[in-house]
Amino acid sequence: MTTVTRATLAEHIYSQVGLSRHESAELLESVLEQIMRVLEQGDSVKLSGFGTFSVRQKGRRIGRNPKTGVEVPILPRSVLIFRPSQILKAKVNGDTTEGMDEGDL
């Protein structure tokens, strides 16, 4: 199993789109920056056929230190949630997308 990095994504853009390596890296950075800006504002990012990134607020709660058993307060925070599309779930599970309508993409 390999890890996909920004460099490998930029290289893939370079080989598929035909931009220079520098332009491919800039394009990737621009897209990632836009996604981060939208998420920082608390909005969702939906990539059709891939999934949806969204921010959820978690409230203050009491947690427990698993080592000592001592209760500790957990402060409110924002968490990033990713919900994969049905198409991505099917591909990961080895299913084909046969039977899906064009509108499902």
UniProtKB/TrEMBL annotation:
<comment type="function">
    <text>This protein is one of the two subunits of integration host factor, a specific DNA-binding protein that functions in genetic recombination as well as in transcriptional and translational control.</text>
</comment>
<dbReference type="GO" id="GO:0005829">
    <property type="term" value="C:cytosol"/>
</dbReference>
<dbReference type="GO" id="GO:0003677">
    <property type="term" value="F:DNA binding"/>
</dbReference>
<dbReference type="InterPro" id="IPR005684">
    <property type="entry name" value="IHF_alpha"/>
</dbReference>
<keyword id="KW-0804">Transcription</keyword>
<dbReference type="GO" id="GO:0006417">
    <property type="term" value="P:regulation of translation"/>
</dbReference>
<comment type="subunit">
    <text>Heterodimer of an alpha and a beta chain.</text>
</comment>
<dbReference type="InterPro" id="IPR010992">
    <property type="entry name" value="IHF-like_DNA-bd_dom_sf"/>
</dbReference>
<keyword id="KW-0238">DNA-binding</keyword>
<dbReference type="Pfam" id="PF00216">
    <property type="entry name" value="Bac_DNA_binding"/>
</dbReference>
<keyword id="KW-0233">DNA recombination</keyword>
<dbReference type="InterPro" id="IPR020816">
    <property type="entry name" value="Histone-like_DNA-bd_CS"/>
</dbReference>
<keyword id="KW-0805">Transcription regulation</keyword>
<dbReference type="GO" id="GO:0006310">
    <property type="term" value="P:DNA recombination"/>
</dbReference>
<keyword id="KW-0810">Translation regulation</keyword>
<protein>
    <recommendedName>
        <fullName>Integration host factor subunit alpha</fullName>
    </recommendedName>
</protein>
<dbReference type="InterPro" id="IPR000119">
    <property type="entry name" value="Hist_DNA-bd"/>
</dbReference>
<dbReference type="GO" id="GO:0006355">
    <property type="term" value="P:regulation of DNA-templated transcription"/>
</dbReference>
<dbReference type="GO" id="GO:0030527">
    <property type="term" value="F:structural constituent of chromatin"/>
</dbReference>
<comment type="similarity">
    <text>Belongs to the bacterial histone-like protein family.</text>
</comment>
<dbReference type="GO" id="GO:0009893">
    <property type="term" value="P:positive regulation of metabolic process"/>
</dbReference>
